[in-house]
Amino acid sequence: MTNTSNATNEKAGVHVEVVVIGGGPGGYTAAFRAADLGSKVLLIESAARLGGVCLNAGCIPSKALLHTAKVITEAAELPGVRFGKPVIDLDALRKWKDGIVSRLTKGLAGLAKARKVTVMQGLARFASAHMLEVETPDGLKRVSFERAIIAAGSSVARIPGFPYSDPRLIDSTGALAIEDIPGRLLVVGGGVIGLEMATVYHALGSRVTVVEMTGQLIPGADPDIVKPLAGKLARRYEAVLLNTRVAGLESLPEGVRATFAGDGAPPPQVFDRVLVAAGRRPNGALLDVEKAGITPTARGFIEVDRQMRTSAPHIFAIGDITGEPMLAHKATHQGKVAAETIAGHAVSFAARTIPSVAYTDPEIAWMGLTETEAKRQGIDCETATFPWAASGRALAIGAEDGGSKLILDKRSRRILGAGIVGAGAGELIAEAVLALEMDAEAGDLALAIHPHPTLSETLAFAAELAEGSITDLFVPRKS
Ligand code: FAD
Fold first, then answer.
1. Which residues are bridge partners to 356 per DSSP?
2. Which of 5, 274, 315, 479 has the smallest set of CB atoms within 10 Å of its CB?
3. Domain ranges of the chain
4. What amino acid positions are annotated as catalytic residues?
């Protein structure tokens, strides 16, 4: 971006009713909803195109590559048919993935135009409670506003001391660029993003080692839901090292030498590339929110109430910058609440759950309370898990290691949470989300007729298990 600190570049100010800072899923949703509700909206985005992390370097490109990975893996494992070794055309793969992203970001630009939302490219920071300074490619612009929505998102967190100037060290954005297929890939972090990228690179031919500091992959989910994934990865990958951390990385001509510490620490090893996927941090540092009277938390997040208002009542914040979970569907819902509150609607962000999905193979999805969390809270709960080995559809698609689990309140029979492992878990979990939001009991799920043979039946079967009415399994009667 042009250096615009020169005062002679300063253009006359713009005044808007609603300014939105950040054009990711939170920001563009808020801007579009505010415009639909009658406000004059300015959307400021520092990048050249809308879409934020999710569209440009997150949800969408990763799912495109994961689709390719899935087809490769399924073809290799398909019983009764032998395909040849896949020939990977990286340029074509990249072009296809980039094409999807560009189609969607262009779509957003069209949606903004149709709603008369003005889009300004530039990096915004607060000058005061009602004024922004925006470094644009044409110089510094001042924007005064009545209401602001901060949707500045998050960036990759860096582990101090690693040799980041070495291009063989990559983050999720670098991994999505798929410049090459490394022979040996070290993935630092066994959370959702690290494992999704590991899935892609393993399918493309890399030998993968995953290092996770805690004792479990995908630490947020229940251990029994993660187990089938962990078992598969232990067989597929060179190593999955739990309770281990990367103590140091050293750039050598032949590769990056990693040293490990912790319970499972192996001797130092050399890798062709290292993907650091150790979390994300909020993008608040450049925003100068203090000048608007807002104090971020020690970690840089901006605190909000249920209307998404910050401590300055005319300034709202949504999405990753407001804290965990950092997920696109949280950002979009919060964006709508902020825009509707500005329009005078009596709304609040009162979602009872924000579902999480790891698009790994098998997929993992969970919502509501996990069993671990329910027990930690001292809730008198029971669980019912239907093993996919008893589902005809799961057997027919080679997904028999899956499982669908419900966590119920023992007395009220209400659904408190659900966890699913297996193909399409991310799609299946939506039914459990609706059940929780509608205060459904296990009996409601069991009595709703699910189409046969589908994986969706497995949630109903879990409910039947809980109700004692299941016929697809034999459960000896309790005396
Ligand atoms: P962002 O998408 O981060 O957008 C913020 C925007 O603000 C950015 O475009 C940034 O350029 C701009 N900005 C920042 N500061 C300023 C400023 N001062 N002035 C102007 N503009 C500014 N989530 C899911 O729900 N599902 C997934 O499958 C999923 N997969 C992911 C995969 C990867 C590899 C990654 C990294 C993330 C993934 N996420 C996923 C998370 C998801 O991308 C984020 O939760 C989501 O993008 C957050 O939206 P947001 O609007 O809060 O912020």
1. 366
2. 479
3. 5-156+281-342, 169-278, 362-467
4. 452
| Element of type H or E holding 174 | helix 172-176
Tell me the whole-structure pTM to 2 decimals: 0.95
Could you tell me the distance, in angstroms and rounded to a whole number, from the CA of residue 467 to the centre of ligand 1? 41
Cα(387) to centroid(ligand 1), Å: 35
List the pLDDT tens digit at each of the 479 positions of the chain: 333 333 333 445 899 999 999 999 999 999 999 999 999 999 999 999 999 999 999 999 999 999 999 999 999 999 999 999 999 999 999 999 999 999 999 999 999 999 999 999 999 999 999 999 999 999 999 999 999 999 999 999 999 999 999 999 999 999 999 999 999 999 999 999 999 999 999 999 999 999 999 999 999 999 999 999 999 999 999 999 999 999 999 999 999 999 999 987 999 999 999 999 999 999 988 899 999 999 999 999 999 999 999 999 999 999 999 999 999 999 999 999 999 999 999 999 999 999 999 999 999 999 999 999 999 999 999 999 999 999 999 999 999 999 999 999 999 999 999 999 999 999 999 999 999 999 999 999 999 999 999 999 999 999 999 999 999 999 887 76
For residue 286, give the ligand 1 atom closest to its CA: 18
Counting Cα atoms < 13 Å in the Cβ hemisphere of 295 gives: 2
C-alpha to C-alpha distance for 297 and 248, rounded to whole angstroms: 29
User: Cα(54) to centroid of ligand 1, in Å?
Assistant: 5
Q: Say whether 169-278 and 5-156+281-342 share the same fold.
A: yes
With a 6 A CB cut-off, is 385 part of the ligand 1 pocket?
no
> Cβ(359)–Cβ(196) under 8 Å?
yes
CATH architecture of 169-278: 3-Layer(bba) Sandwich (3.50)
- Cβ(131) – ligand 1 distance below 6 Å: no
**Cα 420 to chain centroid, rounded:** 17
Cβ of 402 closer than 6 Å to ligand 1, yes or no, is: no
Residue-wise DSSP of 4-47: ---GGGPPPPEEEEEEEE--SHHHHHHHHHHHHTT--EEEEESS
**Is the CB of 228 within 6 Å of ligand 1?**
no
* Any ligand 1 atom below 6 A from CB of 21: yes
Distance CA 137, CA 120 (A): 10
> Does 355 contact ligand 1 (Cβ within 6 A)?
no
Which residue owns the Cα nearest ligand 1 atom 6? 22
For residue 12, how far is its CA from the centre of ligand 1 (angstroms)?
31
- Please work out whether the CB of residue 65 comes within 6 Å of at least one atom of ligand 1: no
Q: Ligand 1: distance of its center to the CA of 18 in Å?
A: 21
Assigned CATH topology for domain 5-156+281-342:
FAD/NAD(P)-binding domain (3.50.50)
Determine which residue's CA is closest to atom 34 belonging to ligand 1: 58
